[in-house]
Amino acid sequence: FAYLNLFTFAMQLLVLAANLPLLFVGWEGVGLCSYLLIGFWHQNLAYEAAARKAFIVNRVGDVAVLVGMFLVASLTGTLDFEALSQRAGVFDVPAFGVLGMTAATAVSLLFFWGATAKSAQIPLYVWLPDAMAGPTPVSALIHAATMVTSGVYLSARMSPIFVKSSAALTVILLVGAATALLAGLVALTQDRMKKVLAFSTVSQLGFMF
Fold first, then answer.
1. CA distances from 54 to 102, 140, 174 (A)
2. What is the pLDDT of residue 178?
3. How far, in Å, CA of 84 to CA of 78, rounded?
4. What's the pLDDT at 95?
5. Integer-rounded Cα radius of gyration of the chain
6. What are all long-range contacts of 81-88, with beta carbons under 8 Å and residues at least 24 apart?
7. Which residue among 1, 81, 121, 187 is the one 20 to 30 A from 177 at the CA level?
8. Any idea what DSSP says for residue 71?
9. Residues 6 or more apart whose Cβ sits within 8 Å of residue 152
10. pLDDT tens, 67-86?
11. How far apart are CA 184 and CA 83, in angstroms?
12. Number of helices and strands (H, E) in the chain?
């Protein structure tokens, strides 16, 4: 219950933050609490492995979020959400990288990569079905309701940048649709209730994106 309260604090910090660095503190906090709660029965080696898997997959996405934050700061000089929405025009102009993509596309894809890890989208959805190793209240609170929607929340929070890139929006559409379809089909083949709920959650997250 101490871990659950710590998770609630981190989730509220993520949602109420007025800038990206503070949001990232909450973002990392929910990841840490998820690890602690999935591996709560750490005497079981399979549960311990599931916790490690969730932790590592989420860190893969977090690297992309960090790079996206550095890129936003270098282009706009601010990480405050209100200021970013006013300066969103900056992302139209400069081309970024060898692929010639606009800054809006690069930043959007980086944040979306982070969101795919936290919100269990293809290809980083693999941790969520195993996360059901945690106690049932944990599965209900974190892995079917709150933490897994934080990627969707980040995408909505950064929407002034996302809407500047039709390429990034197309990628989100395709990944979300593929995740919704694939996870829904996989759920039909499961014979354990928690696994059915896990893949159903992944599918619904695909619909959200």
1. 32, 16, 24
2. 93
3. 7
4. 61
5. 17
6. 81/18, 81/19, 81/20, 81/157, 82/18, 84/158, 84/160, 84/161, 85/160, 88/160, 88/161, 88/164
7. 81
8. H
9. 115, 119, 205, 208, 209
10. 999 988 888 888 888 888 88
11. 39
12. 11, 2
User: Measured between alpha carbons, how far apart are the two ends of the chain, in Å?
Assistant: 31
Task: Find out whether the peptide bond into 123 is cis, omega within 30 degrees of 0.
Answer: yes
Q: What is the pLDDT of residues 26-66, one digit of tens each?
A: 999 998 988 998 888 888 888 888 889 889 988 988 999 99
Residue 54: both structure tokens together: 């969730």
- The CA-based diameter of the chain, rounded to the nearest angstrom, is 54
Tokens coding 181: 């379809």
Inter-axis angle of helices 20-38 and 150-157, nearest 10: 170
Which amino acid, one-letter code, is at 119? S
**Residue 102: which H helix or E strand, with range?**
strand 101-102
Counting beta carbons within 10 angstroms of the beta carbon of residue 190, is it exposed (0 to 12), middle (13 to 18) or buried (19 or more)?
middle
